[in-house]
């Protein structure tokens, strides 16, 4: 079955790249990294019931499995190139299984084609529904965006808006109010079809002092960046970029909670020296994702959140922890 | 939890390689492929209850998760370099979880160190017990061992012995007979601690016309090689290399069945033109794994098995299919 499943996926994700010397069908793929480039590699797993709710459309799952990995490459400023897919599926009647596999492959392929990513290898096994994707990209030596370069005085930015995906997860049921349903549709799309900020990551190369993608929640991920850089950060809650869909579907306090601690945003959180802030922001605006300044890097460790009255807040949650938190999903 | 688990694994698998420019701890690892080498990449998943029985020692699972992937690199004639590990674990009390993670890491690290493989990235999530490992190795352009180069007249070889792992899976319980228990220990070790034939794969570069590793069973995997090469093969059952432990623990017919259709051997099955057979065999003997000629490549498609009286056999099973075969494990 391994071979037929992978063939089925491969047929729907065919992406011709000259640097793929031997693709799917042998014991390993053979690939040529361009001369003078470093290879950026990452792996991420999605588990049914943990990273996506039961009943999620297969095409959304296929998209997201690749998107969360491309987001890791984006956060490094790498150009995506190749992917491997390890797919574990429970038994289903043949027709239902084929429909599921085709759906997964279609969603995966849609995003892969958008970024010219070739699926070069895979493995399919029977078992609980999980997908592990490994991605490979290129970056010129010394130009990768790392977590450890933030310095006190740098400004903290995020792309796009925050909190939408976490709010979408709480609003999976359709609403009878057409306006509310429109908002929910937007929030669910942010949950199910995250847009990896690849172009933003490339634009930040050589300019951002540090970068991370927001997968576990802003406070958690900015905390990782600060720890790696041996600095701290102060965030102003009223600067958090919030979508109108989010603001329309809950009160402001809940929106702030989603934005600070909600996972699955897959926006980039990055730091830049103040002198570069204007040009970086203008470039990201031209790319369509925009970037909002939300705070600054300080010497004292930890991430602190400043409220609308200038007071320090104590957020109820710091972030998502898929592994420890039984109730989160 | 993701970070602590991966740190724990990383601490036990630290392997210094100059080509790892940035290892675990950022959104992606940064790696330098040596100039003039192609990159060989593969991914394989192990699922509890499918690829290893419940109750398997964590160190054996960690070893095997890397071994089955290094076997893919061996089958390409690639030199192993880097690995990514995506680990999904069900909840356990903290002490038991730590013991399991440490066991997994120890087994993984033992094999990684033997081959100088650096763990450069990972992901840990909560969910059903599965491990996906992606491996990366190097091979000079044009020298990889592929599946599609076998030609009629080539001789078919396998390294080591066949059928031990499948027999070991059927003999997990200890025996009260010390001789039988010694045999079972050998067979179980072949199941739990497969030795990837990396040195054999390197030795075969530029000489074997085709190569595959025996993971699903000889008939199935040789069948894949033949399909890729648009040829067929004839195997002589009495030439199958069988260990004394296997022969001592079952009758000859069962031993042949294990050797022909048993999975998890992780030996290399390869083809060579007759003129090179002697020197290839001598070189593999010097490497300690040995290689046995078991048949030859023919023009007619399919894999046929010739019995001890010269008759054509119809094997009961063709191989393991983890995905389709509910009862196999």
From TrEMBL, chains A, B:
<feature type="binding site">
    <location>
        <position position="27"/>
    </location>
    <ligand>
        <name>Mg(2+) 4</name>
    </ligand>
</feature>
<feature type="binding site">
    <location>
        <position position="147"/>
    </location>
    <ligand>
        <name>ATP</name>
    </ligand>
</feature>
<feature type="binding site">
    <location>
        <position position="320"/>
    </location>
    <ligand>
        <name>substrate</name>
    </ligand>
</feature>
<keyword id="KW-0460">Magnesium</keyword>
<comment type="pathway">
    <text>Cofactor biosynthesis; thiamine diphosphate biosynthesis; thiamine diphosphate from thiamine phosphate: step 1/1.</text>
</comment>
<protein>
    <recommendedName>
        <fullName>Thiamine-monophosphate kinase</fullName>
        <ecNumber>2.7.4.16</ecNumber>
    </recommendedName>
</protein>
<feature type="binding site">
    <location>
        <position position="27"/>
    </location>
    <ligand>
        <name>Mg(2+) 3</name>
    </ligand>
</feature>
<comment type="function">
    <text>Catalyzes the ATP-dependent phosphorylation of thiamine-monophosphate (TMP) to form thiamine-pyrophosphate (TPP), the active form of vitamin B1.</text>
</comment>
<keyword id="KW-0808">Transferase</keyword>
<feature type="binding site">
    <location>
        <position position="215"/>
    </location>
    <ligand>
        <name>ATP</name>
    </ligand>
</feature>
<dbReference type="InterPro" id="IPR010918">
    <property type="entry name" value="PurM-like_C_dom"/>
</dbReference>
<keyword id="KW-0418">Kinase</keyword>
<keyword id="KW-0067">ATP-binding</keyword>
<feature type="binding site">
    <location>
        <position position="216"/>
    </location>
    <ligand>
        <name>Mg(2+) 5</name>
    </ligand>
</feature>
<dbReference type="GO" id="GO:0009030">
    <property type="term" value="F:thiamine-phosphate kinase activity"/>
</dbReference>
<dbReference type="InterPro" id="IPR006283">
    <property type="entry name" value="ThiL-like"/>
</dbReference>
<dbReference type="Pfam" id="PF00586">
    <property type="entry name" value="AIRS"/>
</dbReference>
<feature type="binding site">
    <location>
        <position position="123"/>
    </location>
    <ligand>
        <name>Mg(2+) 1</name>
    </ligand>
</feature>
<feature type="domain" description="PurM-like C-terminal">
    <location>
        <begin position="151"/>
        <end position="304"/>
    </location>
</feature>
<feature type="binding site">
    <location>
        <position position="44"/>
    </location>
    <ligand>
        <name>Mg(2+) 1</name>
    </ligand>
</feature>
<keyword id="KW-0479">Metal-binding</keyword>
<feature type="domain" description="PurM-like N-terminal">
    <location>
        <begin position="25"/>
        <end position="139"/>
    </location>
</feature>
<feature type="binding site">
    <location>
        <position position="72"/>
    </location>
    <ligand>
        <name>Mg(2+) 2</name>
    </ligand>
</feature>
<feature type="binding site">
    <location>
        <position position="72"/>
    </location>
    <ligand>
        <name>Mg(2+) 3</name>
    </ligand>
</feature>
<dbReference type="InterPro" id="IPR016188">
    <property type="entry name" value="PurM-like_N"/>
</dbReference>
<feature type="binding site">
    <location>
        <position position="264"/>
    </location>
    <ligand>
        <name>substrate</name>
    </ligand>
</feature>
<feature type="binding site">
    <location>
        <begin position="122"/>
        <end position="123"/>
    </location>
    <ligand>
        <name>ATP</name>
    </ligand>
</feature>
<feature type="binding site">
    <location>
        <position position="72"/>
    </location>
    <ligand>
        <name>Mg(2+) 4</name>
    </ligand>
</feature>
<feature type="binding site">
    <location>
        <position position="51"/>
    </location>
    <ligand>
        <name>substrate</name>
    </ligand>
</feature>
<comment type="similarity">
    <text>Belongs to the thiamine-monophosphate kinase family.</text>
</comment>
<dbReference type="InterPro" id="IPR036676">
    <property type="entry name" value="PurM-like_C_sf"/>
</dbReference>
<dbReference type="InterPro" id="IPR036921">
    <property type="entry name" value="PurM-like_N_sf"/>
</dbReference>
<keyword id="KW-0547">Nucleotide-binding</keyword>
<dbReference type="Pfam" id="PF02769">
    <property type="entry name" value="AIRS_C"/>
</dbReference>
<keyword id="KW-0784">Thiamine biosynthesis</keyword>
<feature type="binding site">
    <location>
        <position position="213"/>
    </location>
    <ligand>
        <name>Mg(2+) 3</name>
    </ligand>
</feature>
<feature type="binding site">
    <location>
        <position position="44"/>
    </location>
    <ligand>
        <name>Mg(2+) 2</name>
    </ligand>
</feature>
